[in-house]
Design goal:
Order of helices and strands: HEEEEEEEEEEEHEEHHEE
Strand content: over 45%
Largest sheet: 5 strands, antiparallel
Distance between the termini: 50 Å
Shape: elongated
Mean pLDDT: 78
Length: 220
């Protein structure tokens, strides 16, 4: 088949167009990047007057979210019960005019009460205390998400120590929750930057936030 000058030019133009499209796609893939955080844990302690507070960072070059979920783990908290050491014998002598403390002897006044020498020992160590939490709530950027997250599991909610939600690999889905919120609340929660997450409850508790976050952003 004879190739004419015009058909040759058309073939060249088609190839240039194809290569240009491929190049643009390659550049787009290099320019955009995906952050995929799977199961990153943050642990804090809280009580009735002080919520457990976490901060989650989202790139300012956010393009869109693919996943924004988390679990809550309530577990015992550790507390130091001492730093070790012991106290020696201490004696007290009381007379009519003054009080004398001597670490070795006792000179009791027969007309007054006296305290006999005694020792105290102190052991170092750590003790675990059960977390006790009720009226549990989750707030993000000052917005109470509790009703939206409760609804995802038919009202089943954090009620003591354990992993929540309790159903296998299930998580609380923040993107699903914001779909039921007013526009201004959606903007406050989904905007890029540091997300302040507060876990509030009555009692003393040790809480771990397990974060699952996936989003696309511009790669600089």
């Amino acid at each position: 088949m004879k190739v004419t000058y015009d058909s040759a030019l058309n073939k060249i133009a088609e190839r240039i167009a194809d290569r240009t499209a491929e190049s643009r796609q390659d550049q787009l893939q290099r320019r955009n990047q995906v952050v995929d955080i799977y199961g990153m844990e943050f642990t804090r302690q809280g009580d009735t007057n002080h919520p457990a507070v976490f901060y989650i960072s989202v790139s300012p070059d956010l393009i869109y979210y693919e996943r924004f979920e988390f679990k809550i783990i309530i577990q015992p908290f550790a507390m130091s019960i001492g730093s070790g050491g012991a106290t020696g014998s201490t004696a007290i002598r009381v007379n009519e005019t003054d009080l004398v403390v001597n670490q070795n002897t006792v000179s009791p006044n027969p007309h007054k009460h006296t305290t006999q020498p005694h020792n105290h020992s102190l052991d170092a160590g750590v003790s675990l205390f059960t977390s006790s939490v009720s009226d549990f709530e989750i707030w993000i950027e000052g917005i109470n998400l509790t009703p939206y997250l409760k609804a995802q599991y038919a009202g089943s909610w954090v009620d003591g120590e354990g992993v929540f939600p309790t159903k296998g690999l299930s998580n609380y889905d923040l993107l699903k929750a914001v779909g039921f919120m007013p526009t201004w609340q959606q903007g406050a929660i989904l905007a890029p930057g540091y997300k302040k997450v507060e876990l509030k409850g009555t009692g003393v508790f040790n809480a771990t936030l397990v974060n699952y976050l996936k989003y696309s952003h511009v790669n600089r």
